[in-house]
Write a sequence for this structure.
């Protein structure tokens, strides 16, 4: 009896799959919605960096690793589920910042700039995954990878920023 039932369910599922495949194949291909899209790129690069990307990244860097000070050894990693959820959300901002930098009207070229922008998103994804699994070692590595992407792009496009950026992140 049980066997028969599962056979029926299997057949039904097969039928459903056939139906949905036919439904899909008869549809028109999706329209290219991005072609005529306009993006609001009013925020300049300096504003995106200072107002969006840097605050989110700073929280990631301040939430990984350890410090040793007068009061002793202190771990910086989040200690609660909420804490990890918060840093995961900051990592999501980093992921999307990669897209913001790559927007037409913002991207400085279609070459290295795009690679660094994508690198930003990739490092952000790693940080998100590490935060989701509360994996400290992976989270730390993601932070290091993120830092190297920031530095590489500044080096290539605005070496002057590099010095200021280093000073800023040293305190
Ligand atoms: C795709 C290239 C690129 C990446 C990646 C990038 N930056 Fe920038 N950043 C720039 C450019 C270009 C400027 C100079 C903007 C200007 O002043 O016109 C800048 C400037 C800055 C500034 C100075 C802003 C100010 O107030 O003058 C900060 C801070 C900064 N970036 C932080 C970061 C951090 C943190 C990261 C990584 C998490 C990062 N950037 C990743 C291109 C990049």
């Amino acid at each position: 009896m049980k066997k028969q039932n599962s056979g029926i369910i299997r057949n039904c599922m097969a039928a459903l799959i056939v139906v949905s495949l036919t439904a899909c194949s008869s549809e028109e291909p999706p329209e290219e919605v991005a072609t005529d899209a306009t993006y609001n790129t009013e925020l300049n690069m300096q504003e995106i960096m200072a107002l969006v990307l840097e605050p989110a990244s700073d929280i990631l860097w301040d939430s990984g690793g350890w410090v040793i000070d007068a009061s002793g050894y202190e771990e910086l990693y989040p200690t609660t589920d909420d804490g990890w959820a918060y840093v995961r959300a900051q990592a999501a901002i980093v992921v999307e910042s990669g897209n913001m930098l790559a927007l037409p009207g913002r991207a400085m070229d279609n070459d290295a700039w795009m690679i660094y922008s994508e690198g930003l998103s990739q490092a952000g994804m790693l940080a998100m995954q590490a935060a989701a699994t509360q994996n400290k070692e992976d989270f730390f590595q993601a932070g290091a990878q993120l830092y190297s992407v920031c530095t590489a792009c500044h080096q290539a496009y605005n070496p002057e920023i590099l010095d200021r950026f280093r000073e800023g992140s040293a305190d």
